[in-house]
Specification:
Mean pLDDT: 97
Number of strands: 23
Strand content: 25-35%
Distance between the termini: 54 Å
Number of helices: 15
Bound molecules: adenosine-5'-diphosphate
Strand order of the largest sheet: 14-13-10-11-12-15-22-20
Radius of gyration: 21 Å
Low-confidence stretches: none
Helix content: 25-40%
Largest sheet: 8 strands, antiparallel
């Protein structure tokens, strides 16, 4: 089926990113927006936009499955792209789109059932012969069970929400005394965030690196990887700066991790874009942690080095094209050859001087950078825009591309410095400190880098 109209069931920068991809392919774009997003920039970037969730809260509006599908049907939409967050990992939404005869741009509901849950995805990885972090792959039922599991894994352990995301429902536990309070707090945090409070346990790795692999799969059984990203620079388990290639791992390790990502994708006959996430421990062993069955915030760096437009690849795949075919610009494994280095910096409205509390209010000046080697994927920022407290604090993604890692750092630094945003606080000074830190320049940061270097906040 050739798409004429695509709806994006999302907002902000990712909605704009998807509209652009559709635009270039001559596909008409349809936005939905909440009451609180009435004046947001993203909706004006679509060819048509419709308000949803009139009597609902700002988040709930974007989760109104039946209403979204109803509007899509009424407006003759062929397919829905869910972006990231909101309904992107909701198998019920994927199924309901299918039932309504609308193509869901992503994996099937069944694939999401297999991979969306962290426990399930570890089971899939094990079946595929891919190493996972030692732990117990079922939800803990009682305090006693929690103690037994932890004792069998050995402290420190990590408690994790099966439905987890965004670093929520996760606790590091160093001793038995901490275990029960952490178990209950992780459980209640998970319940609040995801509506499901299943918690499991695994060994806590000290100072790992987070390396993930971009995957594309089509409806014809072809699976291709677009190499790896290093996402170790995290604050409270949330990514801040991402880059590719991961320069601190060997070529053999890169190959092994990419091959393992393919094995997992093959195990479920994966379709569309997805990311297999791994942790690499201090001894260089890698372990699969989870699969994100959707487009990710940091997909951009992979696009910069491979030249593959991942969102357009999703659109092609959803229209039944085959990976490797001429119509979609080939994209076969042999054809994917990364070139150069790319870094993405997430500029947010978080104030480093105030424990990264998100700032809100009117933007007085919004002047972004441009020039050689720089790409900006923006959301709702412009001079005069109002940043509301209702949604995530991402303002603009500054993405650089250079011939060497140093070149990519210089271009990112120049671009962040050139960006002027006033009237609202941002984390720009913090990002500049990260980019110019010796460990970052060496490319050897592990996931504790930010926590261990408080001077980054100065
Ligand atoms: P989420 O889905 O909430 O983002 P992930 O499972 O992707 O959670 O993990 C996010 C981050 O948490 C990882 O990149 C890593 O920094 C940390 N983490 C997760 N599991 C472990 C573990 N077993 N040991 C050490 N760190 C971990």
């Amino acid at each position: 089926m050739k798409f004429k109209r695509v709806m994006v069931a999302n907002r902000g920068e990712i909605a704009i990113r998807i509209f652009r991809a559709c635009n270039e392919l001559g596909i008409r774009t349809v936005a939905i927006y909440s009451e609180q997003d009435k004046y947001s920039l993203f909706r004006t970037k679509a060819d048509e936009s419709y308000q949803i969730g009139k009597n609902k809260g700002p988040i709930e509006a974007y989760l109104s499955i039946d209403e979204i599908i109803k509007i899509a049907l009424k407006k003759g939409v062929d397919a829905i792209h869910p972006g990231y967050g909101f309904l992107s990992e909701n198998p019920e939404f994927a199924r309901k789109c299918d039932e309504a005869g609308i193509v869901f741009i992503g994996p099937t509901g069944y694939m999401m059932d297999q991979l969306g849950d962290k426990i399930q995805s570890k089971i899939v990885a094990k079946k595929a012969g891919v190493p996972t972090i030692p732990g117990v792959e079922r939800p803990i039922q009682s305090e006693e069970e929690a103690k037994e599991f932890a004792a069998s894994c050995g402290y420190p352990v990590m408690l994790k929400a099966a439905a987890g995301g965004g670093g929520r429902g996760m606790r590091i536990v160093h001793s038995e005394e901490e275990l029960i309070p952490s178990y209950h707090s992780a459980k209640s945090e998970a319940k609040k965030a995801f509506g499901i409070d299943d918690i499991f346990i695994e060994k806590y790795l000290e100072k790992p690196k987070h390396i993930e692999v971009q995957i594309l799969g089509d409806n014809h059984g072809n699976i291709v990887h677009l190499y790896e990203r290093d996402c170790s620079i995290q604050r409270r388990h949330q990514k801040v700066v991402e880059f590719t290639p991961a320069i601190s791992i060997s070529d053999e390790k890169r190959k092994a991790i990419c091959e393992d990502a393919i094995k997992i994708a093959k195990q479920v006959n994966y379709r569309s874009a997805g990311t297999a996430e791994f942790l690499v421990d201090v001894n260089g062993n890698h372990y699969f942690i989870e699969m994100n069955p959707r487009i990710q915030v940091e997909h951009t760096v992979t696009e910069m080095v491979t030249g593959v437009d991942i969102v357009q690849a999703q659109l092609f795949i959803a229209q039944d094209y085959e990976l490797g075919s001429k119509e979609i610009g080939i994209i076969s494994q042999e054809d994917v050859k990364p070139r150069g280095y790319s870094i993405q910096c997430r500029i947010t409205t978080e104030d480093p001087a105030n424990n990264f509390a998100p700032d809100t209010g009117k933007i007085d000046i919004y002047r972004t950078s441009s020039g050689f080697g720089v790409r900006l994927d923006g959301g709702n920022g412009f001079t005069g825009a109002t940043v509301s407290p209702y949604y995530d604090s991402l303002l603009v993604k500054v993405i650089s591309h250079g011939r060497t890692f140093e070149d990519a750092i210089r271009k990112a630094t120049r671009s962040v410095k050139e960006t002027t945003i006033s009237g609202i606080k941002t984390n720009a000074s913090f990002i500049l400190n990260v980019l110019n830190h010796d460990t970052f320049i060496k490319g050897t940061c592990d996931t504790n880098f930010i926590a261990e270097n408080p001077e980054l906040l100065d």
